[in-house]
Design brief:
Elements (H helix, E strand, L loop, with lengths): L1 E5 L9 H13 L4 E6 L15 H15 L3 E5 L9 H7 L2 E3 L3 E5 L2 E5 L10 H11 L1 H8 L3 H20 L10 H10 L4 E4 L6 E6 L2 E5 L6 E8 L2 E8 L7
Parallel strand pairs: 1-2, 2-3, 3-4, 6-7, 7-9
Antiparallel strand pairs: 1-10, 5-6, 8-9, 10-11
This protein binds manganese (II) ion.
Length: 243
């Protein structure tokens, strides 16, 4: 029996090749896959569960069908879709996981994160994150009319593009101390995250491993977990059956 982890698909009507790859991926999931865990940024943008766009409806339907097949669906918030909430969860059967989630299943243990919280050198981003995750701010935003939220989301995206333009590369990667600290805190030898779009398996010494999921674009990426451990895998985006 297997678990599959994915992140950073950034689904949206702007890239139907990636959406098609996502559909093929769900469709082709082997029989022995018990659960699919999405570590954030499934969507390029999610402005609230009352999103009435056709695209949102189609993806929700895909996820609902997956749950109905008996595959347990778990999802973490990314920086792009942190407004995914209870209604989305109800409509898809997906369980929303906390920002730090200890995966402990069939002898395998790993800490799962989206990854943005590890990029502590990016002080501007962390300040922005604290603002938008502030419960009061969050409450106010959630209760704005959909069109207002659409505008705010566009503003956030443009701001983040502008902010990232002049940032040195290393600032947008994880901070090594943040990684060590969090792995120690949760007593894990394996950390799995996405967000940085730098897919890799890093051996950190002392038997510790950091696995970074890739973003979906030219390629699709996933981590497969079974009794033998974790493996980072990829295929070209046009591939009909990645398994
Ligand atoms: Mn992200």
């Amino acid at each position: 029996m297997k678990s599959i982890f994915i992140s950073d698909l950034h689904l949206g009507p702007h890239d139907l090749d990636v959406y098609q790859a996502f559909r093929n991926f769900l469709h082709a999931l082997p029989e022995d896959v018990e659960e699919l865990l999405i570590l954030g940024d499934l969507f390029e943008a999610w402005i609230g569960d009352d999103d009435i766009s056709d695209f949102a409806a189609v993806v929700k339907n895909d996820l609902y069908n997956l749950s109905r097949r008996g595959i347990s669906l778990k999802i973490q918030h990314g920086n792009r879709d942190f407004l995914l909430g209870k209604r989305f969860s109800r409509e898809t059967g997906a369980k929303i996981l906390p920002d730090y989630f200890l995966y402990d299943h069939r002898g395998q243990k790993a800490l799962l994160m989206h990854g943005d919280l590890l990029c502590t050198d990016d002080v501007l981003y962390q300040r922005f994150r604290r603002k938008v995750h502030n419960p009061l701010y969050n409450f106010v935003v959630r209760n704005l009319p959909l069109t207002r939220r659409q505008k705010i989301a566009d503003k956030w995206r443009n701001q983040s593009k502008d902010m990232n333009k002049n940032k040195p590369e290393n600032i947008m990667d994880v901070n090594a101390t943040a990684v060590t600290d969090v792995m120690q805190k949760y007593s894990v030898e394996t950390l799995i995250h996405g967000h940085t779009h730098r897919p890799a398996v890093h051996q950190l010494g002392n038997d510790r491993t950091r696995i970074v999921l890739g973003d979906w674009g030219e390629k699709i990426w996933w981590v497969s977990a079974d009794i033998n451990g974790f493996a980072l895998l990829s295929q070209p985006v046009g591939c009909k059956n990645p398994f």
